[in-house]
Amino acid sequence: MIVWKLVSIERRLFLSSPSKKLTFTNVKAELEYRYFVEYCEGRRSALLRVIQSDPIPSNHFVLLVGEIIATPQKSYLVELSDGWYSVYFEVKPESSFTADKGSMTNNQLLYVLIKFKKLYSGMKIHLFGINLRKSKSDLPSDENEGTQKAMIDINYNCISKAKWNEKLGLARNRPLFLLKNLSCVKTQGGMIPELDVYVLKKYKLLESSTKAGLR
Predict the structure, then answer these.
(1) How far apart, in Å, are the Cα atoms of 109 and each of 20, 94, 116, 129, 198?
(2) Dist. CA 18–CA 25, nearest whole Å
(3) What H or E segment, with its residue span, contains residue 7?
(4) Which of 33, 66, 73, 79 lies at 20 to 30 Å from 88 by C-alpha?
């Protein structure tokens, strides 16, 4: 992830030698900084705190899509990272789809995103509502190994594309809930964090009463 970060800075800023970021000195400095932050100051990354069950997993995150691995079973294993640690979610293979996207299952919707390159390696996404498959007791004792093997479940309605320069981790200076439009919401896409709607008309309260069996 450190190498990926430094190369991305080079490409975005069109840097050339001697201003290159991917150098031994910079990689060493990043490793020393991470060691100091995590082990000396006791500050943990967003995903590590989630896996250790410290914050609420349904927070608003900005994560990087890492590897997308095609398994022999024709499913996809997708890596999500906050730049420090990674978690994975699995999308099972789908042989058939309905013509109406509104009736697709959550797994089918995610499969379509990967199949048609709407969700690809290197992009950043807003994510709300992480569901951990493993509890803290199920993970290995080594924290670094445990986070690499943590599996999560996500919902289609709880993800959206983020800007390339969004800071990874907990979404700071952002709404607590992920705002969605009605056009982006799918029936079986899982929980809807928050809707952006306009009130077009307000109706009066309707009252009814029954008398002698008649309404």
Answers:
(1) 40, 10, 11, 17, 27
(2) 13
(3) helix 2-13
(4) 33
| Count of C-beta atoms within a 10 Å radius of residue 55 | 12
Nearest to 26 by CA among 1, 46, 6, 48: 6
Q: Which of 125, 145, 143, 146 is nearest to 134 (CA)?
A: 146
Residue type (1 letter), 138: D
User: What phi and psi values does residue 113 have, to the nearest 5 degrees?
Assistant: -60, -45
Do 46 and 82 meet the contact criterion of CB atoms below 8 Å apart?
A: yes
pTM of the model: 0.73
User: In terms of CATH architecture, what is 59-195?
Assistant: Beta Barrel (2.40)
Q: What are the pLDDT digits (tens) for 184-211?
A: 788 778 778 777 778 888 888 877 777 7
The mean pLDDT of the chain is: 77
Domains of the chain, residue spans: 1-43, 59-195
85-123 confidence digits (pLDDT tens): 888 888 887 766 655 666 788 888 888 888 888 888 888
Distance CA 119, CA 161 (A): 9
Percent of the chain whose pLDDT exceeds 70: 77
